[in-house]
Specification:
By secondary structure, the chain is an alpha+beta fold. The chain folds into six domains: 4-239 and 250-281, no CATH class; 394-448; 453-469 and 643-765, Translation factors (Elongation Factor Tu (Ef-tu), domain 3, Beta Barrel); 474-639, Rossmann fold (3-Layer(aba) Sandwich), CATH 3.40.50.300; 767-868, Translation initiation factor IF- 2, domain 3 (Rossmann fold), CATH 3.40.50; 872-968, Translation factors (Elongation Factor Tu (Ef-tu), domain 3, Beta Barrel), CATH 2.40.30.10.
C-alpha cells in the first residue's frame, strides 16, 4: 500500500484531523501538517500507540449500560431523560490482548468497507440504547402495576446489555484501530458485565433477569468493539435509599437468584484482579509471535521481501488461556476438556479453513483461534522409500509366520501367491523355495536359514567335558548270521536259558541285549535277527559293537544274510570272529565254509588270514569255551576303556510301549554311569529316568559302561539307534528336543511334498494304478521299521503299497478312525486292539490282521496285491484239422472237408488258416457239420465240414488251427 496523507486517513476513519495528529504524535510519529504523508510502518506505530493507550486506560471503564435518573417528585412521575452517548474502542479487559492482524496491502481498497462497517456498528449501538431504555420503561411500569399505583423508592437494578468488553478510551480517533487492524470478534451479547460508576448520586441499573425480553433480541454479534454509556438527565436530587438486608428464608425465588448471581460476579471480579500482569503476558506473547513471524517470513516467496517488516503482535490468539470473565462460573478441568474439545471438533468441521471467529451465542461462547492444519506436526512421518526386510527362511514355514517376519498382513502373501498360481490358506505350511520366491516377489530379501548343527546343540547342553579317570570296560559282542544258523541257540547255551524256544516261529525278530558273567570275565551280547527284513537292526548292531561273531552253519554254508553281515562288519570297521556252528550234524563241512568265506573276502587264520575261527556246537556246547576265550583275547588287544564317573552316554537299541509301564527304551551304555533320576535326552524325546531294569526284568539302581538296561520315564518312544545323553538341565533338554523335532518335521514334510508330486506324475502317467493302504502297529520300534521297509519293497508298476501310519504300542480308537478314513488294512504285529478299537472296527468295517511272524505279514500282503492284479489272457491250442477237399454251399459258400489230426475242433472258437505252415488268415469257425448235422465238437480222427466266416480261399492241403483264450491269475 502506498503512503497516504494525514487528512485522507482522517476522512477514511471519519475522525477530526487535529485529533488524529495528536494520536500520531503520542505514538511517536512526527507530523507537522495534515498534508504530511505517513507510511505503513508509521500506521503500525499509530496502531500500537492506540493499543497502549487502551491498556493504560483507567479500570473504571464500565461494561454495562448505566441508566441514571433523578426525580424531584419522589418517583411519582417519569423524569425527563437525557441520553448521552460516548463511543469507546479498545481491547477487552477480561481477555488477553489479541494479536494485531497484519496491515493489508490493499488497505485503501478496504477503506470504504471499514467505513461502512463503522456506520453499521454505530446504528447497532443506537439500537441497543433504545432497547435498553424501552426495557427500563417496561420494568418500571410493571412494578408500578404490581404495587397498585403506590409510590415507592426506586431501587438500583442492573441490566446486562450486550456490549463489547473493551476499556474506555477518551479520544475518538481510537476507532482507527478497529478500522486498520484485523476485524477482531467481540464477546457475545450476554458477556459478563461490570458495574460502571455512575456520575450521579443514585443510579438505576436494569438487570437482564428482570426483563429478558429486550435481551433475547440481542443475539446478533457486534462487529466493532464499543462501549455505550447512557447517562440520564439529572432531575431533582433524591437521597439514595439503601435496602435493608432480607432474611434468606423470606426472599422470593427471584431475589435469591439475584443474590446468588451478584455473589458469583463478585467472585469473578476478584479472580480477575489476581490474573497475571499485562506486561508479562505481552512480553511472553511478543516473543512467541516474533518466532512465528520469523518462521513465516522464511517460508514466503522471494517477491514478498519488499513488504515492510511487521512488529510482533502483543499476543497470539489462542496461545495463552484467557483469564476468567466476571460472571463466569469456574469450570472443572475435566468438563472443559471433554465439552470444549467436542465443540472445537464440531467447529473445525464447520470452518475447515481455520482463522479466527467469534462466538455469538447467548451463553457467551468464547472466541476461537484456528490453527493452520498445514503447520500441525504429527509423530509419524510416512517413509519416503519402501522398507525392505531381509529374513531367513527355514526349510518349512507357515504363511502367518512368514507374514510376521515381513511385517505385513498374511492376506498380502496369499494374494501374491494367487498371482503366482498357488492357492494357499493362512495356516498352510509352504516349503523354503516357495517362501523365498514369494518374499522376493513382494520386494524383500530372503536367505535360506542355516541349519543348526546337532553337535553344536549338544555342546551347548553338555557343556565343556571334564577329564574323568578311565577304566577297562567289558566288550560288546554282536552275533550275526543267516536265519536258523544258531545265533540265539548259542546265546541260550551261554546264558543257560531257552530264548529261542520262546521266539515266534523259532526265529529272532527283536534285537536282544544281554550281559553274561563268565569265568573269563563279563561280556555283553547283542542278538540280531537273521531274517532279511531286519537289515537295519543288523546295521545298528554292527555300529554299536566292539566285536562281531559271524555264525555260519557247517551244513548250509554262506547264505545271503551271511554276506550282508560281512558287509556290515567291514563298513563299521569292527573285528570279526567266525564261528562255524552245527559241527555235530552229519554232512558238516567246515572246509567248504572257509572256502566260501574266502570268496567273500574273509580270510581266516586257517587260510593265512587274520580272522579267528571257532568250530562249535550250540546244541552240545562243544567249542563254546574256546570261543569265549577268543572274544576276551580280541577285546584285550583292543584295550577297551571308558570313564565310569562321567555323565552317561549310550545308544538306544530298541524302544517299545508296554501296558502298565509306558515307554520302555533299551539303552546300551557306552560311557559313564546311568542312574535313576537322571535327565536323559534320546533324539527327539527326553525325560527323567523313573526306573532301570536289566535284561531279566530285575530293577537296578545304575548301569555302567557296556551294560544294556531298560529305561522308563521318557516322554515318547525314541527311534532305535538314537544317541542317549544325560544332561543336567531339563529346560535345555526340552529345547534341544524341540529343535530336533522341528527339523524332523521339516524333513518329513519335504519328503511328503516330493511324494505328492511323484504320485501326481505317476497318476498322470498311469491313472489306473491301484493302491494298498496299510496301517502298521508293532510291539517294538525295530519290528515296525523292518515291516515298513519290507512292505515298501512290494510295490510294483501296477500296485503301490502305501503305509498310512505306523507306530509302537496297542491300537486305539483313533488308529481305527484313521484306517476307516483312508480305507486301510490294519496290521498288528505282536499287539492287540483295545475294546474301543474293536468296536470302532466292527462299525466301520475295518479289517484288522494279527501277526507274530514277520514273513507271514509279507506273504499275506503279497497275496492281497496279487488278487488285485488284472488276470492275464493266454492263448491255448485245442485242435488241428487238415483240408482234404473243398465243396461249395449255397448257404456258406466254400466248405472245407477236413480230417481232425490233433486235439478237437469246437464250434465258435477262433481259427487260423495255415498254408505251407504260414498263417494266411485269422478268423472264426462259422459252421461245423458232420454228415449234414450241426455239431459243437469234433474229436481226433473224425471227418467234418468246416465253414470259415468271411473267407472263401480255402484250398486242399491247407491246415486249420483251432485255439481259445484263457484268463490266468497273476502273482507278484
Amino acid at each position: 500500500m502506498s503512503d497516504i496523507e494525514v487528512s485522507e486517513l482522517a476522512k477514511m476513519v471519519k475522525a477530526p484531523v487535529d485529533v488524529l495528529m495528536r494520536q500520531l504524535k503520542r505514538a511517536g510519529v512526527e507530523v507537522s501538517s495534515p498534508e504530511d504523508k505517513i507510511t505503513d510502518a508509521q500506521k503500525l506505530m499509530l496502531l500500537e500507540g492506540m493499543r497502549e493507550s487502551v491498556d493504560d486506560a483507567p479500570a473504571s471503564g464500565g461494561k454495562k449500560i448505566t441508566l441514571k435518573s433523578r426525580s424531584a417528585a419522589g418517583g411519582a412521575k417519569k423524569p425527563g431523560i437525557e441520553v448521552r452517548r460516548k463511543k469507546t474502542l479498545g481491547l477487552r479487559k477480561d481477555t488477553a490482548p489479541a494479536a494485531a492482524a497484519p496491515v493489508d496491502v490493499a488497505a485503501e481498497a478496504r477503506a470504504d468497507e471499514l467505513a461502512r462497517q463503522a456506520e453499521q456498528a454505530r446504528l447497532e449501538r443506537e439500537s441497543l440504547i433504545q432497547k435498553a431504555e424501552q426495557g427500563r420503561r417496561e420494568l418500571e411500569a410493571s412494578r408500578l402495576r404490581r404495587d397498585k399505583g403506590m409510590p415507592e423508592p426506586e431501587q438500583p437494578v442492573e441490566t446486562p446489555v450486550s456490549e463489547p468488553a473493551t476499556p474506555e478510551v477518551a479520544d475518538a480517533p481510537a476507532e482507527v484501530e478497529a478500522k486498520v487492524a484485523a476485524e477482531t470478534p467481540v464477546a457475545p451479547v450476554e458477556s459478563a458485565p461490570e458495574v460502571v460508576p455512575a456520575p450521579v448520586e443514585q443510579a438505576k441499573v436494569v438487570e437482564a433477569e428482570a426483563k429478558p425480553e429486550p435481551v433475547a433480541q440481542d443475539n446478533a454479534p457486534v462487529e466493532t468493539p464499543a462501549e455505550v454509556v447512557v447517562p440520564v438527565q439529572e432531575a431533582a436530587p433524591v437521597e439514595a435509599v439503601k435496602p435493608a438486608p432480607k432474611n434468606p428464608m423470606e426472599m422470593t425465588a427471584k431475589e435469591r437468584h439475584e443474590a446468588v448471581t451478584n455473589a458469583a460476579r463478585r467472585d469473578a471480579a476478584s479472580a480477575l484482579k489476581r490474573r497475571p500482569s499485562r506486561a508479562k503476558l505481552k512480553a511472553e506473547e511478543a516473543a512467541r509471535a516474533a518466532a512465528e513471524a520469523a518462521k513465516v517470513a522464511a517460508s514466503k516467496p522471494a517477491e514478498k521481501k519488499a513488504e515492510p517488516a511487521k512488529p510482533a503482535a502483543p499476543a497470539k490468539p489462542g496461545a495463552t488461556a484467557a483469564p476468567a470473565k466476571p460472571g463466569d462460573k469456574p469450570a472443572s478441568p475435566a468438563a472443559v476438556t471433554r465439552k470444549d474439545k467436542k465443540k472445537i471438533r464440531t467447529r473445525e468441521r464447520e470452518n475447515p479453513r481455520g482463522n479466527v471467529r467469534g462466538g455469538n451465542n447467548r451463553r457467551g461462547g468464547k472466541r476461537e483461534v484456528k490453527v493452520d492444519r498445514g503447520e500441525v506436526k504429527h509423530g509419524f512421518e510416512m517413509p519416503t522409500a519402501p522398507v525392505v526386510h531381509e529374513i531367513e527362511v527355514p526349510a518349512t514355514i507357515v504363511v502367518t509366520d512368514l507374514a510376521q517376519k515381513l511385517s505385513i498382513r498374511a492376506t498380502d502373501i496369499i494374494k501374491a501367491m494367487m498371482k503366482m498360481g498357488m492357492m494357499v490358506t493362512i495356516n498352510q505350511v509352504i516349503d523354503q523355495e516357495t517362501a523365498m520366491l514369494v518374499t522376493e516377489e513382494l520386494g524383500h530379501i530372503a536367505k535360506p536359514e542355516k541349519e543348526m548343527d546337532d553337535d553344536a546343540l549338544l555342546a551347548g547342553v553338555l557343556g565343556e567335558g571334564k577329564d574323568f579317570a578311565e577304566t577297562v570296560r567289558p566288550p560288546v559282542v554282536t552275533i550275526m548270521g543267516h536265519v536258523d544258523h544258531g545265533k540265539t541257540s548259542l546265546l541260550d547255551y551261554i546264558r543257560e536259558s531257552r530264548v529261542a524256544s520262546g521266539e515266534a516261529g523259532g526265529i529272532t525278530q527283536h534285537i536282544g541285549a544281554y550281559h553274561v558273567d563268565t569265568d573269563q570275565g563279563t561280556i555283553s551280547f547283542l542278538d540280531t535277527p537273521g531274517h532279511a527284513a531286519f537289515t537295519q537292526m543288523r546295521e545298528r548292531g554292527a555300529q554299536v559293537t566292539d566285536i562281531i561273531i559271524l555264525i555260519v552253519a557247517a551244513d548250509d554254508g554262506v547264505m545271503p544274510q551271511t554276506k550282508e553281515a560281512i558287509k556290515h562288519a567291514k563298513a563299521a570297521g569292527v573285528p570279526m570272529i567266525v564261528a562255524i556252528n552245527k559241527m555235530d550234524k552229519d554232512g558238516a563241512d567246515a572246509d567248504r565254509v572257509l572256502s566260501e568265506l574266502s570268496q567273500n573276502e574273509v580270510l581266516t587264520e586257517d587260510w593265512g588270514g587274520d580272522v579267528p575261527v571257532a568250530r562249535i556246537s550250540a546244541k552240545t556246547g562243544d567249542g563254546v569255551d574256546a570261543l569265549l576265550e577268543t572274544i576276551l583275547l580280541v577285546a584285550e588287544v583292543q584295550e577297551l576303556t571308558a570313564a565310569v564317573d562321567a555323565p552317561a552316554k549310550g545308544t538306544v537299541i530298541e524302544a517299545s510301549i508296554e501296558r502298565g509301564r509306558g515307554v520302555v527304551a533299551t539303552v546300551l551304555v557306552r560311557e559313564g554311569t546311568l542312574r535313576k533320576g537322571d535327565i536323559l535326552l534320546c533324539g527327539t524325546e527326553y525325560g527323567r529316568v523313573r526306573a532301570l531294569f536289566d535284561e531279566a526284568g530285575r530293577p537296578v539302581k545304575e548301569a555302567g559302561p557296556s551294560i544294556p538296561v531298560s529305561v522308563l520315564g521318557l516322554s515318547a518312544a525314541p527311534e532305535a539307534g538314537d544317541e542317549a545323553f544325560v544332561v543336567s538341565d531339563e529346560r535345555k533338554a526340552r529345547e534341544v528336543a524341540d529343535v530336533r523335532r522341528e527339523k524332523q518335521r521339516d524333513t518329513r514334510f519335504a519328503a511328503q511334498q516330493s511324494t505328492k508330486l511323484d504320485n501326481m506324475l505317476n497318476q498322470m502317467e498311469s491313472p489306473d494304478k491301484q493302491q494298498v493302504n496299510l496301517l502298521v502297529k508293532g510291539d517294538v520300534q525295530g519290528s515296525v521299521e523292518a515291516i515298513r521297509s519290507e512292505l515298501a519293497k512290494l510295490s510294483t508298476d501296477e500296485i503301490e503299497v502305501r503305509i498310512i501310519a505306523s507306530g509302537v504300542g496297542g491300537m486305539n480308537g483313533s488308529d481305527i478312525d484313521l484306517a476307516a478314513a483312508s480305507k486301510a488294512i490294519v496290521i498288528a504285529f505282536n499287539v492287540r486292539a483295545d475294546g474301543t478299537a474293536r468296536k470302532n472296527a466292527q462299525e466301520s468295517d475295518v479289517e484288522i490282521r494279527y501277526y507274530s511272524i514277520i514273513y507271514d505279514v509279507i506273504n499275506d500282503v503279497r497275496n492281497a496285491m496279487s488278487g488285485m492284479l488284472s488276470p492275464e489272457t493266454k492263448e491255448v491250442f485245442t485242435g488241428l484239422a487238415e483240408v482234404k477237399d473243398v465243396f461249395k454251399s449255397s448257404e456258406f459258400g466254400q466248405v472245407a472237408g477236413c480230417l481232425v489230426v490233433d486235439g478237437a475242433v469246437r464250434k465258435g472258437n477262433p481259427i487260423r488258416v495255415l498254408r505251407d505252415n504260414v498263417v494266411i488268415f485269422e478268423g472264426e469257425l462259422e459252421s461245423l457239420r458232420r454228415h449234414r448235422d450241426d455239431v459243437k465238437e469234433v474229436s481226433l480222427g473224425t471227418e467234418c465240414g468246416i465253414a470259415v466266416k468271411n473267407y472263401n480261399d480255402v484250398q486242399a492241403g491247407d491246415q486249420i488251427e483251432v485255439f481259445e483264450y484263457v484268463e490266468v491269475a497273476r502273482t507278484i
